[in-house]
Design a protein that fits this description.
- It is a single chain.
- By secondary structure, the chain is mainly beta.
- The chain folds into two domains: about 100 residues, SH3 type barrels, CATH 2.30.30; about 70 residues, Roll (SH3 type barrels), CATH 2.30.30.
- Strands 11, 14, 15, 16, 17 and 18 form a six-stranded antiparallel sheet that branches. A five-stranded antiparallel sheet has the order 9-8-7-4-10, with no helix packed on it.
- The two termini are about 30 Å apart.
């Protein structure tokens, strides 16, 4: 699972955003050092392991991205409460990809590829995205991404965020996404976000 978790964002002022920005000081958003996005469930949870082959859909596109409403959501091995819990998500707003539907349950996948079933009622259509989650490495500093005031690489840097931070996705044009993070709002290249598809337009 992801090695960093964000229940809330801590925003601090960096001494410098680095020599490649040219804009002097800029705020930096960093995720608190929680141990994991999801944690193992309590021992002793049992249940069936088979999954029904008949899938009923909501009429919404599959796959699609959603986000978690709650900061505690059970990820189960199948679509029902009698299936064992494989993980417990502890990160409200975490983006997930819905890959299958069965009645009121959704099979989801996180940025690490971990898959399981959650109740639809714990999911929101609000779009969020993780910044460069694939760049998080153990015992290495998280890389940083610049947030700009326009959808251009030459636009002014308004903030710098660490990989693993959750961004609220306001819109995307296929190349850039307008996002909000804490009290900051600006543009991040779409290819640096997990929670939006390549060239997807979000309005």
């Amino acid at each position: 699972m992801l090695r960093r978790s964000t229940l809330s964002l801590t925003v601090v002022l960096a001494l410098s955003v680095g020599p490649d920005t040219g804009y002097g000081q800029a705020p930096v958003a960093t995720p608190p050092a929680y141990p994991s996005t999801a944690v193992p469930p309590a021992a002793g949870s049992g249940g069936r392991l088979d999954v029904p082959s008949v899938v009923q859909t909501s009429g919404l596109p599959v796959p699609r991205y959603v986000s978690l409403k709650s900061d505690r959501v059970n990820l189960r091995n199948g679509p029902g409460t009698d299936y064992p819990t494989s993980w417990v998500f502890k990160r409200a707003g975490l983006p997930l990809e819905v890959v299958k539907e069965f009645e009121g349950w959704r099979q989801v996948r996180d940025a690490d590829g971990t898959s399981g079933w959650v109740l639809q009622s714990f999911l929101s259509g609000r779009r969020t995205a993780l910044v460069l989650p694939w760049e998080l490495k153990p015992d290495k500093p998280a890389p940083r991404v610049q947030v700009r005031n326009d959808d251009s690489e030459s636009a002014k840097v308004v903030a710098v965020v660490e990989a693993g931070v959750i961004a609220n996705v306001l819109s995307c044009d296929g190349r850039w996404c307008l996002v909000s993070i804490a009290n900051y709002r600006g543009y991040i290249e779409q290819k640096k976000l997990w929670g939006v598809y390549e060239r997807e337009v979000v309005k």
